[in-house]
Design a protein that fits this description.
- Strand 8 and strand 9 form a beta hairpin.
- The chain contains 33 helices and 10 strands.
- The strands form 3 sheets. The protein has a 6-stranded mixed β-sheet. It has a two-stranded antiparallel ribbon with strand order 1-2. A two-stranded antiparallel ribbon has the order 5-6.
- Helix 7 runs parallel beside helix 9.
- The longest helix has 29 residues.
- The N and C termini lie far apart (79 Å).
- The chain has 3 domains: 427 residues, no CATH class; 185 residues, no CATH class; 145 residues, Serine Threonine Protein Phosphatase 5, Tetratricopeptide repeat (Alpha Horseshoe).
- The chain is mainly alpha-helical and 782 residues long.
């Protein structure tokens, strides 16, 4: 085929988009394991284990191949590269799909192949779409860690592009194999993430408008079904591997019954997700729609200089509200692109609108998320962000085409392409994982805290999956038996712990576990000991304490198992809880728990508090803190919350040393805490350090820490002033506190709270008239 100017420009731009994305992702890729599902995926790939339902067999198999590559001493890095490569290819197909949409809606496209000025607006639109998605918040975040979402978008965009190629060639022989191949691709995609299958309705819309009779063809459906099953057969790998009992074998899908429960995600609830749609689990408009979809949608494309609207959204995890700066231009472009697509090519437009709705509002309705959620869920909707970026690119192309003068068109084209450049600059720091070893060290520090041969109860994903990775991939502290409390509610996990070597001592029979312990009939609940309507004294391994009643009058399966494991173990092995385990999961054992840094040990004696020598050894000698305070390492909210456990350990140690009249070592603990565990922008950490420095009588250090809080720009001014004033109140510096509260009032910062606190500080200073005046003013405001 003769090379034309149009094809040359198109190919150069496609390669440019791919290389730009690839270089940026390689620059920002995580060097090792990250939090959430990454540790589990890497460990399962390395050991060919079975991850959480409904499984990702295609990803696990490809991941196993990548872990064999000699690219790094840490097998997590090659796994992270899967996301880099597949996400970059996804961006390439977003470009190709956008350009294809533009060309299919243009009757002149085939007649002007040698006119470079004709093709430039079209490739500029494609590049705009691709790079806007590449540097969007959610897509970039998942493209530099061991996750499946970039890979999923690659298969989705590839399928849409192939569908467009089929429509373009539908009357020729070149189209014969495309639809069967798409069916095979969808089967493979089913073994990666079910999100990919939402592309199928779009492809059916394409076929409907192109050739309705083809949809009625038994031959097409037969071949497509056969190839889909062939692609979906990657699930056989999980079935086979589960039968070989790998260390990580979630839901144990080694027989047909377990396998079907695994695919149906029965672990997450017995009610059908389809039926649950009709009974909302949270406020649909305010929470599920506004907080759990539109918040993420409006946070994707921030362009510096174009942030015209600031909208308050609440977190998914709690009611706290925070602002999002919304750049209007990208969203206006998307709306223009929707209109342009509908006007020029209504048939294919409806196909993409179906995909946009299904991957956005459709998932919002179907998933029916509860309030609150354990984490933000933006990654769920990445498909709708990808579709919207295509429409932004189509709008950009349309605007350039409508500009008559070439010089103006080029200038506007440059400005449009500067939008993703601005987004890349805005998002680079929060998405750069260079030097981020926080999850690796966090998991290692937990394991190293434990005595040899210990049992360690953990709470959730972030204090479990990094530990699985370290034990199964890095061969670190495999003598510690990690027991996840959430999974301890399931029959298959309890039986696996029983059968592991060394595992934990479980004296229940398999029949009792299946038919009594994890059953929900009244008889089973009574016989299992889960009925717990009031506080009761229990005895386990010689310990006596009171387990409080639960709010529902029932203990969870995990609660019964914790009590039993402690009793059956009978001090043969040390037992710990992770520092991340909340009090409600500790079953009232506080008097028999002693902190040793990132873990708390179950003790025979009633010695609550801190074990000074072990905690000192862990915090000062064993733990690594890479990246915790490094300003070049970005810490998201989840990471920030987790590393506060280091601060808590140091502060508890310092308080205990103070109580034991050892002020010199207490000071060293606080000094070390600031040096390794309190980032410069963590004003709360500095406030806590200041309070303890005051108890030590180190007033110079106290004032230095408070001055730092007052100059921290990462927090609102009223928060800064109020925090410092509160510490000064604790120190008895009432005049200084009064002055700070007066500054807040004069500047109109949280006036009600400032007036109340100033009244308190004035009363403490003996200024009763001033205190009364503040309270009267507060009453008038109310």
């Amino acid at each position: 085929m003769e090379e034309t100017v149009g094809r040359l420009i198109h190919r150069i731009t496609a390669v440019g988009v791919l290389l730009i994305t690839l270089v940026v992702y390689l620059k920002t890729v995580a060097p090792t394991v990250s939090f959430w599902d990454c540790g589990e995926f890497i460990a399962c790939a390395y050991t060919l284990g079975v991850p959480h339902p409904p499984g990702t067999p295609l990803y696990i198999l490809i991941g196993r191949l990548f872990t064999l590559l000699p690219l790094s001493e840490d097998p997590a890095f090659p796994m992270n590269l899967i996301s880099v490569l597949t996400s970059a290819i996804a961006i390439l197909f977003i470009y190709l799909t956008t350009v294809k949409f533009i060309a299919l809606g243009d009757e002149e496209a085939g007649d002007r192949d040698d006119d470079w000025s004709y093709h430039l607006p079209r490739v500029a639109g494609g590049a705009t779409a691709a790079l806007m998605l590449a540097f969007s918040d959610t897509f970039w975040f998942n493209s530099v860690e061991a996750e499946v979402y970039g890979f999923s978008v690659m298969l989705m965009s590839m399928s849409v592009w192939l569908g467009l190629v089929w429509m373009e060639r539908a009357s020729g022989r070149g189209s014969i194999g495309i639809l069967p191949f798409i069916a095979y691709l969808m089967g493979l995609a089913g073994g990666l993430h079910l999100l990919c299958l939402l592309t199928v309705p779009t492809l059916l819309v394409f076929i409907w408008f192109q050739d309705k009779e083809l949809l009625m063809s038994p031959k097409l459906w037969g071949v497509a079904a056969l190839l889909f099953i062939l692609g979906y057969s990657t699930y056989a790998a999980l079935f086979i591997r589960s039968g070989l009992n790998p260390v990580i074998d979630q839901n144990n899908p080694e027989n047909w019954t377990n396998f079907m429960l695994f695919l149906s995600r029965a672990q997450y609830g017995s009610q059908s997700m389809f039926l649950s749609v009709f009974q909302r689990k949270a406020a649909f408009v305010d929470y599920q729609l506004w907080t759990m979809y539109f918040k993420y949608f409006f946070a994707q494309f921030p362009v510096p200089g174009l942030s015209f609207v600031s909208e308050a959204f609440r977190k998914a995890t709690d009611p706290e509200v925070y602002p999002i700066e919304i750049s209007l231009i990208p969203y206006l472009l998307g709306i223009v692109g929707i209109g342009e697509h509908w006007r020029r090519d209504p048939h294919r437009f409806w196909g993409m609108m179906v995909l946009f709705v299904l991957t956005g509002l459709g998932l919002t309705v179907y998933l029916n998320m509860e309030d609150p959620q354990p984490r933000e869920r933006d990654y769920v909707f990445v498909g709708s962000f990808a579709v919207f970026s295509i429409w932004m690119g189509m709008a950009a192309s349309s605007i350039l085409v409508r500009l008559n003068r070439k010089s103006i068109s080029v200038a506007v084209g440059v400005l449009l392409l500067l939008m993703p450049v601005g987004m890349a600059a805005t998002h680079f720091a929060p998405h750069d994982r260079t030097g981020n070893h926080i999850a690796f060290d966090y998991g290692r520090n937990m394991l190293e805290s434990c005595a040899p041969g210990s049992i360690l109860f953990t709470n959730g994903d972030n204090d479990t999956f990094p530990l699985w990775f370290l034990q199964e991939v890095m061969d670190i502290r495999k003598d510690v038996q990690v027991v996840n409390l959430s999974l301890l509610n399931t029959n298959w996990y309890i039986k696996q712990l029983k059968d592991m070597d060394p595992g934990v001592t479980v004296r229940y029979t398999d029949e009792f576990i299946d038919e009594i312990l994890t059953a929900y009939t009244r008889a089973a609940v009574m016989k299992s000991g889960r009925y717990w309507p009031e506080d009761r004294e229990v005895e386990a391994a010689g310990l006596r304490w009171t387990v409080p009643a639960s709010s529902y009058g029932l203990l969870r399966v995990q609660d019964v198992m914790v009590l039993k494991i402690i009793d059956w173990n009978n001090w043969e092995r040390p037992v710990y809880f992770g520092a991340t385990v909340p009090d409600k999961n500790l079953l009232g054992m506080m008097d028999h728990l002693q902190s040793e840094g990132m873990v708390v040990r179950v003790t025979r004696e009633q010695i609550k508090g801190v074990h000074i020598d072990r905690t000192w050894r862990n915090l000062f000698e064993l733990y690594d803190y890479r990246g915790v305070i490094d300003p070049s390492v970005y810490r998201d909210e989840n990471t920030t919350n987790l590393i506060t456990n280091y601060q808590v350990a140091f502060l508890q140690l310092a308080e205990t040393l103070l109580d034991n009249e050892d002020p010199n070592r207490a000071y060293l603990a606080l000094e070390r805490c600031e040096a390794v565990a309190v980032p410069r922008d963590d004003w709360k950490g500095y406030v806590l350090l200041a309070g303890l420095m005051h108890r030590l009588g180190r007033e110079d250090e106290t004032q230095r820490l408070l001055r730092h809080v007052q100059t921290t720009e990462a927090i609102a001014e009223d928060t800064r002033l109020g925090a410092v004033a509160e510490v000064q109140m604790q120190m008895g510096l009432y005049d200084s506190a009064t002055a700070l509260y007066s500054q807040m009032i004069d500047r109109g910062l949280n006036i009600e709270l400032a007036l109340f606190n100033r009244a308190v500080s004035r009363e403490k200073s003996g200024l009763l008239e001033g205190a009364l005046s503040d309270l009267e003013r507060l009453a008038r405001l109310a």
